[in-house]
Amino acid sequence: MKVFKRKLEDKLKKFLKRREIIGIRGARQTGKTTLLKIIEKSIKGEKVFINLDIPEYRRTLEENPLDFVKRFSSGGKLFLFFDEIQRVKDAGEKLKIIYDEFPEVKIFISGSSSLELKTNVLPFLVGRLFLFELFTFDFEEFLLARDKGLAKLFREKHESLKRFLEDKDEIAQPSFIEEFLKYWKEYAIFGGYPEVIKARDKEEKITILRNIYNLYLEKDVIGFFRVEETSKFEDLLKAFAFNISSLLVLSSLASDLKISYRKAEEFLNILKHSYIIYLLKPFHKNLVTELKKAPKLYFLDLGLRNSVINNFVEFDNRDDRGKLMENFVLRELLTNFESYELKYWRTTGKAEIDFILIKDENVIPAEVKLGGERLSKGFYSFLNAYKPERAIIITLDKFKKQKIEKTLVYWIPVFYL
Question: Nearest CA to 343 among 352, 137, 320, 300?
Fold first, then answer.
């Protein structure tokens, strides 16, 4: 079985010698089990990997967590891996008992529902848990799986962008633009699920994505969250998919689909907590003129989004190119610029900036521009209002530097993120 490198692996290994539990959460099929097994394989010593889909293991852990550990421990250091911990009743309480009673046991857990973990696990493990999120492959991980030479060049461009944002360097010139864009356009259509990346044939990719979507409906929506009105759930999810990179007005969508607002809110929470969608909040300092409530809606994997609307047309022939590009930018900023708080900006007068990166006292506007070189009035409005030192315009393939009053603006290709 071919296994691709995940960036989270190196982060996790830094905490192997610490006492705290290591937790990984994320959507189904993103590779949590594979990553746990890679960590397990790298560890020397006594270890055991527990599949909590096995009823006997699950039942014993629920009824007698102390005996569960004794069953596998010889008394020395033990590394204990629990896969899909949310399947265990009162999981947080059981983990706390093991953690407190067996200081020689190092625990690893994975889970697919952030809601279940937040409710039944995290409250019991305050100060006892380091929690990480595993998303589908980002663009760098995708390149590492497909073309290591380009991945190395990507890393150089990406790091220069990060240094620029910190006011430490210029952004490096692009190279091999057509090769980067070929891969980027594939990623924008099929996303980053590991099994999709392994498949090279278009029809195989589509089949895998549809199976992932159907499994999500069956295991999470129907099985775990016990949603009975699946057709209404699917209708709302499809409406969300058509409205990516847009303000979410839930009441309007619910009315159009003849779903109660309360039910639409319930479905929205399921989609957030099962890592299907992400809601970006607005940035506001001027409470009078800037929009304060409505979030913007994005999908955490574009392949799944395109599967929901059954549209796998090539990027250059699509009507939703701008939406796909903006959604891609959100996902990369979210996972690769973790030291920044991420918002969007929009005034009551409808001046808008796609993304605002916030760190300490610095605000950096980032505008996504599929074509043309004319900047929006909203961009100039933000520069006038906040006078940022740096700004970026994210384009398909343009690269240039300009000064707008006191703001240094770089135009960069989308594959720098």
Answer: 352
